[in-house]
Amino acid sequence: MEHEEFNQSHAHHDSAPVFVTGATGYVGGRLVPRLLDAGYAVRCYARSPRKLDTRTWSVDPRVRVCPGDVNDVQALADAMRGCRVAYYLIHSMGGAGKHADFARQDRELAEAFARAASQAGVERIIYLGGLGGAGEDLSEHLASRREVESALGVTGIPVTVLRAAVIIGSGSVSFEILRYLTERLPVMTTPRWVRTECQPIAIRDVLTDLVACLEKPETTGQVIEIGGPDVLPYAEMMQITAAELGLRRRIIIPLPVLTPKLSSLWIGLVTPVTPAIARPLAEGLRNRVVVTTDAMDRLLPRERLGTREAVRLAVSRTNAREIETVWSSAGVVPGDPDWAGGTSYQDERSVVIDAPADAVYRAICRIGGGHGWYAAQWLWRVRGWMDKAVGGPGLRRGRRHPEQVAFGEALDFWRVVGLERDRLLALRAEMKLPGEAMLTFRIRPDEQRPEARCDLTMSARFRPKGLLGILYWYSVLPLHHIVFRGMLGGIRRTAEKIHHERSPGIHAEGA
Predict the structure, then answer these.
(1) Could you tell me which residues come within 8 angstroms of residue 271 by beta carbon, excluding any fewer than 6 positions away?
(2) Half-sphere exposure in the Cβ direction for 67 (13 Å, CA)
(3) Which residues are paired to 190 by β-bridges?
(4) pLDDT tens string 7-45
(5) How far apart are CA 373 and CA 375, in angstroms?
(6) Beta-strand (E) ranges in 14-157?
(7) Are residue 462 and residue 349 in the same domain, yes or no?
(8) Residues 6+ apart with CB under 8 A from 118
(9) What is the pTM of this model?
(10) Which of 104, 112, 308, 354 has its CA 20 to 30 A from that of 123?
(11) How many helices (H) and strands (E) does the chain have?
């Protein structure tokens, strides 16, 4: 994995743990193992701690995971107590709605964090913000990042701010947008922002800078703009990405009529990123985001990966299925909806499988992404297109690994909200629906022959919202017989094949 190549000197620092928020997110999930490599103990604060269960570093005795919400000042202060430095790596990305909503939420969370840090006696805060000049022309998205910088400093604790533009790494939202645009569109009509210059930075350089700030007291209270060695327009980044993907040069035609709203819809249709997330990103693309100060060279001097090298590394990690963290894992993971009260529908089907529970579980965990959904693939694709057309995630989010799943992970337009090895996988729908939907797989070993047979039950539950939700359920109900029956049959065949291939005397990988 990438952190194995991270080489940070082991300085003589005290034993106080480092506090990290956002450890379940893209950057935070990669920062924690780098901090451990550098010799630090780490205390993670997570709203959904179970997301960290599959991270190899979560069982390190130097890691402590504290559950809680950032807006709970007292709980946050209690969790921070004893830490001298705290990383703030939280950003809503506008997923909750209009700009005013997510900007206010980000500001209030940052202020709560600052108050809690003050109560806990934290001496320093480190924040990763967005690169871009000041002034009235700053996009709302980047302006919100500036507000967060100010909010973190309201109690007087020194804040070290690292400002980065496009972060390139396997699984990053920027790389996913670049990859999907260049893979799917040999000819692109694009907004004028493709000519805007930016200074991209590799994720490994961002992580190195974040850790280096701990070792360099002179970075305390500083605003440091960070970037790679290249300054280039977005159009050239697309061409570099196409070349590293082995594709011919893309034809890019800028059009002045494409507004940020239209751009976000266009990004939403072609990439795994929803329009709600793409909108603030598209607005920010009008700003030239390049390093304008010498703080990086003075305080964090070293060689950095160029854009081509960063894209090449991201492509190789993606192809090798060694994606350490992904952007879609961040955010709230709701549990099973409250089904009490109101109308709810259920479609439950079962099948007997001549294989043990672990083989069945492995077969279930292959659903989604490149492997598909075992049956009626054209129906799933149509449903994905429909979802993208109305602003949902569609099927393009895929999955991090072809066979392994983790709590909180996105599988196409589903989210893993329940996970018990060899027993259960529960998914909650994140597609646009007139209601709430769950898909649950339960495995029950045969009482007489648990080593060779089990029952698999698949339950689809739906709570409609209004008449439209009721009509939706009955409209898709006839398709369930095709889709669900086919899925169960595909899982059964795959599980029995896994069992057959490893017995007798053949041990399956990971068995």
Answers:
(1) 176, 177, 180, 181, 278, 396
(2) 7
(3) 254
(4) 443 344 557 899 999 888 889 999 999 999 999 999 999
(5) 6
(6) 18-21, 42-46, 63-67, 85-88, 124-130
(7) yes
(8) 155, 156, 157
(9) 0.70
(10) 104
(11) 14, 19
